Amino acid sequence: MANKKQFDIIIAGAGAAGLSLLWRILNSSVLRDQKILLIDQSFEPANDKTWCFWEDLSLPNEGVIHHSWEKLLVKIAGEDYSENLNEYVYKCIRSENFTHHILQQAEKSEQVTFLEAGIKDFISDGQFGFVQTTKGEFKSRKIFQSALKPSGFDNLEVDISLIQHFLGWEININKNLFDPNLAIFMDFEVPQSDGTSFIYLLPFSQNKALVEYTIFSENLLEKDRYREQVRNYLETRYNLHKDDFSIEREEFGAIPMEDRKYPAKYCDFVWNIGTIGGFAKPSTGYAFSRIQKRSLEIMNALESQNPIPERRASSYRFRVYDIMMLYLLSHERDNALRAFECLFQKNSFDQVLKFLSEESNPALELSIFSKMPYMPFFRSMYKMKHRIFTGV
Ligand SMILES: Cc1cc2nc3c(=O)[nH]c(=O)nc-3n(C[C@H](O)[C@H](O)[C@H](O)COP(=O)(O)OP(=O)(O)OC[C@H]3O[C@@H](n4cnc5c(N)ncnc54)[C@H](O)[C@@H]3O)c2cc1C
To answer: Which UniProt keywords apply (predicted)?
Structure first.
């Protein structure tokens, strides 16, 4: 490359989205000659996130899957719904392993230049996109960024802006209590005063689990409030007191759940990917599998030298379903809980997961909605009609 500040591809942000795309490019025989600049504030793999999904995804290495479960449990309205999965497996990846694996491959590749720097902004002069960092400016015609909100983002039309926020502890306990084959997907039997709240519990062995207190609401809580709820849950459900467990690590997350139309691009030549690109599903917060699908789509476009498709993360049909559920979560919390109850009571878990991952067909969706309390959903459609009829 003639100019050492010019690259074929720049990936700004080396989290789930940036590294998934990098991995795709590094494994493409067609893109072998592409020089890539990878930028992040830190390349130290952090054990700060567990990414779960149930779809069949191509992964850098099957070994990155830390644990998987074939049985899920949902507790709601005094009932336990637990079921073996037949079509899916619920899988979990630790961010540290995923990052380590891909960075290791990148370090061995002559294609990748690493830049540990703060990303400040992106601009375009009409010929190139530029990333401005604390260590200088770099240019490319293909920049993929997952670090910064595009300018004007906060002024985009948004009717419902919730957050899925959670804090969890990975704990070791002094007895064998957990079932490592059964993940607690949602346990709503917790106080509902902070927002629509549930416990998510991933057992890794009989005496080790990640336990998270999760809320769908407008505002974050004081960290101690989440901790208190996790502690209460361990005590009331498992009779585990302070001295019965040790905390190996704490995980905190806040994922947007909103009807904002996320812009595909930051500016000319700069595409938004990952959460900032709108790839977290508004009604669930799940993003990892959507990020994988988007990475594949971008790689296919790069390989065929076609324009990067500017598609939204979900098709119109699913955007409407998401907006209806967001409306209930925001305005009719009791009905949102009732909808969750009907979902798990009246459908198989495989069907629910298929629907949530947007792999369902209209017949299944009709069947799911026909078993729901329909008035709240009609009301949500009516209340959100100005979004629904303008494309959401
Ligand atoms: C704790 C947690 C658990 C989650 N669990 C799940 C799950 O189980 N399943 C699921 O589907 N989704 C999950 N999500 C949602 C989503 O999958 C993750 O948030 C995912 O990490 C999003 O990927 P990303 O690349 O957009 O962001 P990130 O992974 O956060 O990556 C962004 C990168 O940009 C870098 N960066 C940011 N700003 C700058 C800057 N100014 N300068 C330089 N570098 C910068 C950061 O260091 C980071 O490496 C979870 C989210 C969190 C927070």
So the answer is: Membrane, Transmembrane, Transmembrane helix
pLDDT in tens, 177-214: 999 999 999 999 999 999 999 999 999 999 999 999 99
Beta carbon of 40 within 6 Å of any ligand 1 atom? yes
Would the CB of 16 count as within 6 Å of ligand 1? yes
> For the chain, what are the domain ranges?
9-68+94-155+260-304, 161-258, 316-388
Mean pLDDT in the chain? 95
Q: Ligand 1: which of 24, 41, 289 to mutate, judged by most atoms within 8 Å of the beta carbon?
A: 41
End-to-end CA distance of the chain: 43
Per-residue model confidence as pLDDT tens digits over 127-183: 999 999 999 999 999 999 999 998 889 899 899 999 999 999 999 999 999 999 999
Is the CB of 147 within 6 Å of ligand 1?
Answer: yes
pLDDT band at 340 (very low <50, low <70, confident <90, very high): very high
* Annotation: CATH topology of 161-258: D-Amino Acid Oxidase; Chain A, domain 2 (3.30.9)
Tell me, in angstroms, the distance from the centre of ligand 1 to residue 380's CA.
30
Compute the distance from residue 241 Cα to the ligand 1 centre, in Å: 32
Residue 357 · residue 313 · CB < 8 Å: no
Dihedral pair phi/psi, residue 319, rounded to 5°: -65, -35
Q: What is the CATH number of domain 9-68+94-155+260-304?
A: 3.50.50.60
Q: Could you tell me the two tokens for 296?
A: 């594949």
